[in-house]
Amino acid sequence: MTLTDARVSPPVLERLLPRTPGRWLRTMAWASLLANATLVLTGGLVRLTGSGLGCPTWPRCTEASWTNTPEMGVHGYIEFGNRLLTFVLAAVAVLTFLAVWRLRRRHRDLFTLALLMGLGIPLQAVLGGVTVVTGLNPWVVGVHFLVSALLITLGGVLVNRSRRAGLPHVAHAERAGQVGEGRRTIRGVGAVLAGSVALAVYLGTLVTGTGPHSGDSGEVARHTFDAYLVTRAHVVPVYVLVGTLVLAFVLARRSGWPRPVRRRLLLLGALVLAQGAVGYYQFATGLPVVAVGLHLVGAASLCAVTAMTVETMYAVSAAAGSRTARADVVAAP
User: Fold this and answer.
1) Please, are residues 43 and 179 in contact by the beta-carbon 8 Å criterion?
2) Mean pLDDT of 9-23
3) Does the pLDDT at position 141 exceed 50?
4) Which end of the chain is less packed: N or C, by CB atoms within 10 Å?
5) pLDDT (tens digit per residue) in 214-237
6) What predicted TM-score, i.e. pTM, was given to this entire model?
7) Which of 28, 325, 12, 16 lies closest to 183 in space, CA to CA?
8) 274 vs 276: CA distance, rounded Å
9) Which has the closest alpha carbon to 323: 132, 215, 177?
10) 333: exposed, middle or buried (Cβ count in 10 Å: 0-12, 13-18, 19+)
């Protein structure tokens, strides 16, 4: 090792392996969230362009080649490009894991989140292979998307908690407010928000598996559900979500929930309205590719924003519970 290496290496290691939650951890938390959201975007591009079998084998692209060949055309490039994104996700996952390694004792939650997101990358790679081997079976494709939705959700929680751990003013702002005895209410509202979004996303995979965008121009198995009925079922939890959001807005204003919670509820409400508008548009116009792609991106965004909103609501309720417990101790004879 040269003298220059000796001078450069320690600062680099300190940045990659921080001892306290800081900007690098927050950057990697956002990178993890965005990388997994990008996988949804590229996966949607694969499906909507009919490139799902652009590489007809796995893990090789063909029996004789690890990469696509010119003879495979644009579908081969699109599918192989989607596969390459796995290496980007793996690199981001490793860097995120390193960013929490020295924090694993004092911030076990951050370590656990980073570990779970990292383990999700090889799982997604295997599921992608199973998707190809099974000829784009809609059940497997649905599970493939749901794992991405889960990783995006975990990414949203990681972003929240890394900000709270590294920026004291963020934690202080989330503690401000008069939640008081309503902490069970705020947790209950958060649980309904999370549950309705999860159910809507799951039913959305059934709608997609029943629809025309199979991922390949050839004969591909589809769900045999009635397209109209499964779409109406998909809308039911969305109605529950909208009603719960309206209730949350009323309670937040009346009970003085902290400003960060109210801001996230407003963002979630705006996203739900936009997602609903795109959903109704694509349903009324015969599922055009652009609208379906926007709806897919909206679903990924909905998972992330819901995770951030509900996690903040639970953090606020936990802080309120801690204050109540301390007050009880002080008031005890």
Assistant:
1) no
2) 84
3) yes
4) C
5) 888 777 899 999 999 999 999 999
6) 0.91
7) 325
8) 5
9) 177
10) exposed
Distance CA 105, CA 171 (A): 20
What integer is the mean pLDDT of 168-193? 78
Region of 57 please: left (phi>0), alpha (psi -120 to 50) or beta.
beta
- 324 has pLDDT over 50: no
Backbone angles phi, psi at 134, to 5 degrees: -90, 10
pLDDT at 280: 94
Gyration radius from the chain CA atoms: 22
> How many angstroms separate the CA atoms of 209 and 224, rounded?
9
Least confident of 36-50, 65-79, 141-155, 172-186: 172-186
CA distances from 56 to 60, 134, 178, 186, 256 (A): 9, 10, 58, 49, 56
Under 8 Å between Cβ of 304 and 158: no
